[in-house]
Amino acid sequence: MPHIPSRLVVAGTAAALAVGLITPTTAEAAAKPVTRAAGLEWVALGDSYTAGVIQATGDEFETPRDGCARTTGSYPEVIRRDLGPLVDLRNVSCSGATTGSVYATELSPLGRPLPPYGTDPDAPFPPVPPQIDAVSQSTDLITVGIGGNDLGFAQILEDCVTLGAGTGNTGTPCKDKYDTQLPGRLNQLRSGYDQMLTALHAKAPSAKVVTVGYPHLVPEDANRCRYGDPLQFATFTTGDLAWARAAILEPLNAVIQQDTAAHRDTFVDLYPASAGHSACDPDHWLDGLLTSILPLEYALVHPNAKGQAFAAARVETVILGD
Questions:
Q1: Which CATH number goes with the domain that contains 100?
Q2: How far apart are CA 100 and CA 147, in angstroms?
Q3: Whole-model pTM?
Q4: By the 8 A CB rule, do 40 and 86 touch?
Q5: Is residue 13 in some structural domain?
Q6: pLDDT of 194-212, one tens digit each?
Q7: What pLDDT digit, counting tens, does each position of 92-106 carry?
Q8: Which residues contact 187 (CB under 8 A, 6 or more apart)?
Q9: What is the number of structural domains in the chain?
């Protein structure tokens, strides 16, 4: 059984006592709201893999919409429901965010569906402030899932699909375009991640910081992906898929893990346990370019509800085990 932080124990006990004080014998007592004890002050930061975004992770829940496309099935919201009053969550994750969007710069969200596959009917959205603005000295827990957009993953994905079209699944046209650029991009990510963690610790010196990596998007054997299938990676060639796994996804996780260790923070590694659940596997925890063809639902290679539930379980274990 995991050790539950003392503050969570106190909050849970207080909430239980508050529920026990309700007298269900009168309408007046039943209508009285239960006072929720203050839970662990948690701020969830991150990009679309945290926010949820795609229809396969549920509906957006914020009114008015800000374009960040946080969904009911995203892992912070799953944990919010699981832990109830034990946590007091502020979820400011946002689609398209980079490390800079977390600690330094405004972001202009795109909403959903994401270009170039559609335009949100409510766009353009006003810029949202740096996510660190949601953090304060009283914050107990910060979770952050970020990094893919620093490498330009969305643009690389789009280009790989475009460059692979008409090749008959031969060659590595995307690798040929991007391979020499990746070391520089990974170095920029390393610097940005380090600056982000430094800023978060300065803003909330007593907070526990938990970083969240990325799951298996591509299977260990890229031949398991069907070339031309929009429910997987469409016209991304097999050679480019193998390259993307080894040259982008695994180094991305390695940089996050190394920077996290350098700051003595906690890294939640989603990669090993999500093997066998890539966008090309029968029991897939990520959807490919599309979630479905009829009706047409875009996914752009994001975790579906199963993938978000998996991430929620891993992060929740860290929260309860602290």
A1: 3.40.50.1110
A2: 10
A3: 0.88
A4: yes
A5: no
A6: 999 999 999 999 999 999 9
A7: 999 999 999 999 999
A8: none
A9: 1
